[in-house]
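Standup notes
- HV: blocked on the assembly model, inputs below
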Amino acid sequence: MKILLVEDDRMIGWGLRRGLLDEGFTVDWLDDGDAAVVVCSEHSYDAAILDLGLPNRDGLKVLAELRHQGNTLPIVVLTARETVADRIKGLNAGADDYVCKPFDFDELVARLRAVMRRRAGLVSAVLEYRDVRLNPTTRCVAFKGQLLGLSAKEFSLLEILLQRPGVVLTRNQLRDKLYGWDDEVGSNTVEVFIHSLRRKLGHDYIENVRSVGYRLPVP
Amino acid sequence: MRSIRARLLIGLLASVLAVQIVMYSMIYARIEDEIDDLFDSELERSALSAGSVPQQAVIPTPARQVEDPQEEMVVSVFKASDPLPSYQTHRLSGIPRSTPIGFSKLKLDGMEWRLFASAVRGQFVVAAQPADVRNRAARRITQRSLLPSLGALPLAALMIWIAVAYGLRPLGRITQDLRKRSHRDLLPLDVSRLPPDIAPLAEALNDLMGRLAGIIATQRTFIADAAHELLTPLTALRLQAQMLARSKSPSRQREAMAELQGGVARTLQLARQLLTLARHDADGELADKTEVDLATVIQRVLSIHLPLATEKALQTEIGIQESAIVLGNEEALSILVSNLIDNSIKYTERDGRLLVSLRPACAGAELKIEDSGPGIPLEERARVFDRFYRRRDTMVTGNGLGLAIAKEIADRHGASIVLESSEALGGLSARVLFHTAKAA
């Protein structure tokens, strides 16, 4: 799951990035509203956390601009403006959720997951596919009723695939979702993780669509 | 202090009384004249009527004793040239035969008498009456007319009381208006509905309330801003604490702890800065101005900040004149200098350069702090003095108060801060112009 974090305060940005990484998200962190608009049009994210008090361009304007461009990225807004009128303004501008400073990190993550589920049309937090049950909140995977030990990247990769069974995802798309800008990425890393997932789940779980990418086969 | 009502009542009653006294003394004089005329004509009539009685009819009986000499009129009739009267209504000796014809005055038995003498049918008639009768009559008449008028004084007092109350009603309205208000309502009083006497008072009140409202608004904005600005470091703190709690490996813990400590330091700094601002806001004017040597202040501040500059390997040049005495608050001036130097050190990259100088300049002293940092773009130079204005900068975590505080302190000291591009170092040049008490 790849998150765009737009926060100008260095300390808050650091804390959020660290926490989100620990939660298994991939994070790109920007401190500038203008840059956020540009980046969103070039990269694909699963969700964004947007601070409203940004230099150069107010967060609300960034939000309006993104929605104006037709971007449907789920966005959780962070703000110190906590009046009801402010919340309504934020939600009207296209925010999916609203978290007031000083927020609790766990609550922020829960809300972030909730807006992503809503966008994916999922009601339950648990992703299911054949004998696999993946809970993004607890970060547990059950396979045939047994808990399955996965590394963070394996987990993320499985989560991405489980969200859209049947849809083919290219290697680049997967790599993009797995890694932030700051991460060093080897050329065949995605294949390495696909390989180890197949070893743990069985080869028929992840289908290799030749020269395109991977998908979970749908009968 | 005596109330306006009492003052007016006493003043007006005293005036009424004074007017009455003058009036009645004039009336008394008039009454005296009238009574004189009246009594004179009675005297004359009595004398003439006694004289007109035939001589035979005048009974030479022994005259009655004058019972009340102050009331009685004595008529004496003299025959031919007898020195003693042949007839007298009352016993009274001493009325001389030589009394001049017409009205005259005479002292008899220690009393003043008014006389009228006339020759009627060969007889000489003198009518006499004590002069005092007249005075008493005049007094009595005056007194009788004075009494009801004095009796009307309480009525006058009551009416004055009512009139004063009526006159003071607008004052009561203002009082009511002010009393009804909540402490937040500092809207001006409606002066157009007030009489011109109290309008200036109301205007003065309005002026005061206006200034008060301004100060309260500033304070309220400050508190709102401060509370809002506290949210950012507190959010960071909360997040840092949560990250520390989640850290499992020692290296992660160390990293998170360092972040948390940074967050605490920054929150403390904000609290300190807010306190500084609040204190300088409240003072308005500098409370205790003393002679402060700027050179000493700058050297002391530098000794605190130089280790930081050394840590960043900044090449620092210092050129400070021996002393420059300004009138001001030493602590405030230290904060001003400290904020400027601190900014330069923070924003200048490693191995950069820093220049601090204090020199005499046009009737004062000029503190100049230059650095080789990124500088401040022209369009931002005015805004950086705004409270909580933060420049876009990923490297430095500030609260946006340092320069605002510096400017506040400079203003209080009649000094001015100018931000420019440094010609020597290419970064920011901050110049502060002070008025010196005496340049040594």
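- HV (later): unblocked. Chain B touches chain A at residues 228, 231-240, 242-243, 246, 256, 259, 262-263, 266, 390-392, 394, 397 (CB under 8 Å). The mean pLDDT of chain B is 84.
- Next: hand off to the docking folks.
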